[in-house]
Design goal:
This protein has 246 residues and is an alpha/beta fold. The chain has helices spanning 47-50, 79-92, 105-117, 138-155, 162-173, 201-210, 226-229, 231-245; strands spanning 9-13, 16-23, 32-36, 58-62, 98-103, 121-127, 189-194, 214-219. The chain has an 8-stranded mixed β-sheet with strand order 1-2-4-3-5-6-7-8, with helices on both faces. A hairpin with a 2-residue loop joins strand 1 and strand 2.
Length: 246
């Protein structure tokens, strides 16, 4: 991999300004790992997991559109759009091949990206991803529906609530990936979920079974936020998989 000469900044994809940060490896020419956060979060969800990776990888953490320091733009939010944003980012930074880790909505974005540009991804880690809203547990979907209703009522009084409403609706209405579509994605993939995840256990199994070169790991006792619930175990699993692929 080439030496990294660029640093934190913004790139534009049409109507949105997208923020990213670069965490250079101590190893010259280290492979690149891009980490995508979940819904309503920002890049800092990965903060405590970056340091163990830097001896081996340069880590890039973008803020997804409408979240963190990235602007929303005017286009309807979708995981396809987030994948387009990622494609714009790697092209503008002149990144060739890279490793990809996506948490929750970031995992959905990673899948959408892989369906379109798998030749750019060396290996992929999906953490709490889903193929459709039906992959969420019934309790989680009811909670989101109540949250969307509340945000809709507040939106009548505050235009500033539009972003919150749109992000909740994104989880309720997207993605729409058929398991058969995953059969053409041959990237080595690790599917991680928590034992008490908001994604149905059988749904995570379906993702791993539908990808030709994937395996699944369940972290005991952890919920959806496995990175916070079991940080040491999570970092170990991620690093072992990435180094195995190297």
């Amino acid at each position: 991999m080439p030496n990294i000469t660029w640093s934190n900044g913004y790139i534009r994809n049409n109507d949105a300004a997208l923020y990213y940060e670069v965490h250079p490896s101590v190893e010259e020419g280290a492979p690149l790992l891009i980490c995508l956060h979940g819904n309503g979060e920002d890049m800092h969800i990965f903060d405590e997991h970056i340091a163990p990776l830097l001896p081996y990888y340069t880590v890039i953490t973008p803020d997804s559109r409408a979240q963190g320091k990235s602007s929303a733009g005017e286009r309807p939010l979708s995981y396809e759009l987030f994948a387009e944003d990622l494609f714009t980012l790697i092209n503008k930074l002149q990144i060739g091949n890279f490793l990809l880790l996506g948490f929750s909505d970031g995992g959905n974005t990673a899948l959408e990206f892989a369906l379109r540009h798998q030749e750019r991804v060396c290996a992929m880690i999906l953490v709490g991803a889903n193929l459709s809203p039906e992959g969420l547990t019934a309790t989680t979907r009811r909670g989101l529906q109540l949250l969307a209703l509340g945000n809709g009522l507040r939106d009548l009084m505050s235009r500033g609530k539009r972003k919150d409403r749109d992000l909740v609706r994104l989880m309720l209405e997207h993605p729409h990936i058929e398991p058969q579509q995953l059969e053409k994605v041959s990237i080595p993939t690790l599917v991680i979920s928590g034992e008490r995840d908001v994604i149905k256990n059988e749904h995570s199994e379906l993702i791993a079974a539908s990808l030709p070169n994937a395996r699944r790991v369940v972290i005991p006792g952890a919920g959806h936020f496995v990175m916070k619930d079991a940080p040491d175990e999570f970092s170990r699993i991620v690093l072992e998989f990435l180094m195995e692929d190297d």
